[in-house]
Amino acid sequence: xxxxxxxxxxxxxxxxxxxxxxxxxxxxxxxxxxxxxxxxxxxxxxxxxxxxxxxxxxxxxxxxxxxxxxxxxxxxxxxxxxxxxxxxxxxxxxxxxxxxxxxxxxxxxxxxxxxxxxxxxxxxxxxxxxxxxxxxxxxxxxxxxxxxxxxxxxxxxxxxxxxxxxxxxxxxxxxxxxxxxxxxxxxxxxxxxxxxxxxxxxxxxxxxxxxxxxxxxxxxxxxxxxxxxxxxxxxxxxxxxxxxxxxxxxxxxxxxxxxxxxxxxxxxxxxxxxxxxxxxxxxxxxxxxxxxxxxxxxxxxxxxxxxxxxxxxxxxxxxxxxxxxxxxxxxxxxxxxxxxxxxxxxxxxxxxxxxxxxxxxxxxxxxxxxxxxxxxxxxxxxxxxxxxxxxxxxxxxxxxxxxxxxxxxxxxxxxxxxxxxxxxxxxxxxxxxxxxxxxxxxxxxxxxxxxxxxxxxxxxxxxxxxxxxxxxxxxxxxxxxxxxxxxxxxxxxxxxxxxxxxxxxxxxxxxxxxxxxxxxxxxxxxxxxxxxxxxxxxxxxxxxxxxxxxxxxxxxxxxxxxxxxx
Length: 566
Prior knowledge:
Mean pLDDT: 89
Strand order of the largest sheet: 11-10-20-19-18-12-17-16-13-15-14
Radius of gyration: 34 Å
Oligomer: single chain
Shape: elongated
Helix content: 25-40%
C-alpha cells in the first residue's frame, strides 16, 4: 500500500495527519482499485512495532505551504486530515479498545480490503444481512445480538425506516427457530406480504379479549378517565360490578340500601326523591303504591311499614358492610352493561353521601365506555380467551391495528405485551420464548407525554425496557418523532438504527438519550441519504453506515406513487 501521509497530532480521541502528495490517493493493488473519498474513509496507521491502528476520517482542512520567499513565491497545497479511533488489529482480529496509540510521523495508509474483512467479520452461523458497508462489505449481524436487545429505528419520513424493518423481517424469516415470536403492530397496513411463517391478524375481526381478563390498568388505558376525580369512580364501579357478579353484594339489598338512605338523609324535593326511590325498588317486592306521586309523601302508618320492609331487607347491614365487600373485590367484570349499571349505582352512592356532582364530573367517562362498547364490541365479544395462537411454523405475527384510535392502540399493545411478559415470567428459563415487539409509529403510544402520568399508561413498556431481557421480552421502536418517545424506554435500547434526522429538537433529544453517539455523529444524521442507516450500540462495536438492501417495488407498499403523464 502507498503511504498517503504522516501523523502530526495524537490524542485519546483524535488523530491528524498531513497529505502532501495527492497523486498517492489513487492506486491499484493486486487488482483492487483504491481511491480516497475523504470524509467517512477508513485509514490504517502502522507504527514501528508494526501494529495496525484503524481510524475513521471526520474532517479535512486545506493548507498552503510557502515554498520560497519573495513577491512571486510559489505555494504548495497540503491537506490536514482529522480522524477518530476505531480499533487495533492484532493476530488478525480487531480489538475496539485501544491499549496503545500511534506516534508522530507514523505512516498512514488507506485501509485495505483484507483489513476491512477483519473489521467487519461476524463469527456466527446465524448471521443475517442488512445491506452493504462502504458499498462493498456485507453488513452481517448475529441474529441473537440483533433481536435479544431492545432496539430503535429512528428517522424522518422517507428516510428509509420501513425499508430497514422489512429487511430485518425478511432476513429473520430465512431462519428456522423454535422459540422466537416476532410481534409487529402494523398501524399503516405496511406488512401485507404473504409468507408461510407470517401469521396475519386483523385485531378487530380476528382477536378476542374477555373483559374479565382486564386489570385496573387495562381499564384505565381503555376508557381513559380524564382526571383523578374520575379514577376513584371507575375503580369503585369495577369493584362493585365484581362484588355483584360474585354474589358478595345482593343487588336487591343494594337497591333497598339506596332507597332507605335516600329517604332518610337526602334533602331533595319530595317528588324528585320519590321518583328516584321508586326507580330503585322497581324490581323488588317492596310496596310503593302508597307512596303519593303528587306530593311525594306517605301517611305515618304507611311510612312505618315502608321503612320496616326496607330494614328487613337490609338485615342490620349498613354501609360499612357494603364498603368491605367492595374493597375486597377485584376489577374483573363480565360485560360493559354490568359496568355501566354499576357506574350508575356508584353515582347514587355518592349522591346520598352529599356528592351531587359525581355524575356530572364523570359524564365523559361514561361516554367513553359507551363509545368503546359500540365501536369495538367485536374485540370484547367473548367470555373465554380464544385469541388466535401462533402456529408452530408461523413465528412472525402481524397485528393489523390500522383501525384503532391512539387510545385503543395503547390499550391493545400494552395488554398483549403484559400478557406475554407475565406468561414468560412464570416459565422456567429453558422454557421461555423470545418475544420481540415491533412498534410502528411508537410515539403514538409509547409517548413522552405519558412518561410521568399519574395513570401509568405506559408502565408495562417501561417495565419490559428495564426487566424484559431476563424474561425474554424485547422492544423494537420505530418512529419518525424521536423527541416524542418515552425517554425511559428509548434510553434502555441497546441498538439504534438511525436514519436521516433534520429536526433540531429531535437531534437534541437523541444526544441526551442515546449513550452511544457524540455530537459529530449527530451532525452526520442530518445528511444521511435515503436508505442509509447509522448503526450504533451493542450490535456492532463501532458506529457504521449501512446502505440497506432495498425491497422490490411490490414489497414496498409505503413507496410514494409517481405522477403518470399521458
